[in-house]
Amino acid sequence: MQTTKKAYLLTALAASLGFAAVPAQAATFASSILNITNFRLLHANGTAYSVGDFSTLAGNNNAHATAELNNVFDNGADTRSITAAVAPNVAHQCVGACFPLAEDNFAPIAGLPPVTTTYGYADQRLTGAAIRVGATPAGANASTRADASTSVNAVAAGNSDVGTSTTFAFTMGAADDTMTVSFTGNPYTRALVTPGAGAVSDANARLSWSLNIINMTTHASVLNYAPDALNSLSAVSATHAAPDNVVYAPGATLFSAVSGLLKANQTYQITIQHNSFANATQNVPEPATLTVMAAGLMGIALVRRRRAG
């Protein structure tokens, strides 16, 4: 009786593996998008800082975008002065059969699963300036996007990271003042693993945004601003053990922070980091492998049945 039960269980398992040999809807997908608009640096009285408010001002805007698929990379980078008329703008990067997104498209992709191909994708855009430059009013806009996708019955890994960083030093004029950071942020992250995805499958997405101001003489921090809504709260994940479609989309939110007192004639450095990260992996056995496994188990079941008889 015990042998018969074992044979029945093995036959059932073999049958289930035989069904699994038919390709299932197996997918992993991760997306990370951060749109920052009207980013400004303001005086205590609410007006925007301008180039003329500093006795010295020097620094760069840096941008990069990296897409990866199975250790194949596509990279782009650009660096411009913070007072340049044109901000850095890296073309979108793609490795694999990418979803057909237009350049500078920072809107989420809908659907379950949203795509059925395997790729890594990254894009970046930066326009405007955080301070008034000449007659141009203050107001910078920065967007980053990273997507990673694996499709049906694939053994693949997609990884993307993209970001902008701004670092500049300035020397205050003849008066003390504070500096208010003000902007609207719209974060979006998504991690999807379908029930058909195989073992060792996962999807992860997160954002990272921070601003630091330090006194270049004392090296003391004057402002360290990294809101949770653009950092830890944005981290989402799903795995083969717990298939899910996890979305973080709180909508557009106003962010602001005020520095400590900036002393007249002292030099400070501002560093702004803005990054999107997405990673998706999947390891699904090939249909042929599953068929062989099923046939082998069915053979074992038949042998045990004959012995039991």
Helix content: 10-25%
End-to-end Cα distance, whole Å, is: 10 Å
Shape: elongated
Give a short account of the largest sheet: 7 strands, antiparallel
Residue runs with pLDDT of under 50 for 5 or more positions: 1-24, 288-304
Strand content: over 45%
| Tally of individual domains | 2
The averaged pLDDT comes out at: 84
The strand count comes to 14
Order of helices and strands: HEEEEEEEEEEEEEEH
Rg on CA atoms, Å? 26 Å
How many helices?
2
Structural class: mainly beta
Organism: Pseudoduganella namucuonensis
Domain Ice-binding protein C-terminal: 284-305
Pfam family, one: PEP-CTERM
Signal peptide: 1-26
Describe the structure.
- With 309 residues, the protein is mainly β.
- The protein folds into 2 domains: 46 residues; 257 residues, no CATH class.
- Helix content is 13%, strand content 48%.
- The protein is built from 2 helices and 14 strands; from the N terminus they run αββββββββββββββα.
- α1 packs antiparallel against α2.
- The protein is elongated, with a radius of gyration of 26 Å.
- InterPro entries: EDSA_1-like, Ice-binding_C.
- This is PEP-CTERM protein-sorting domain-containing protein.
- It comes from Pseudoduganella namucuonensis.
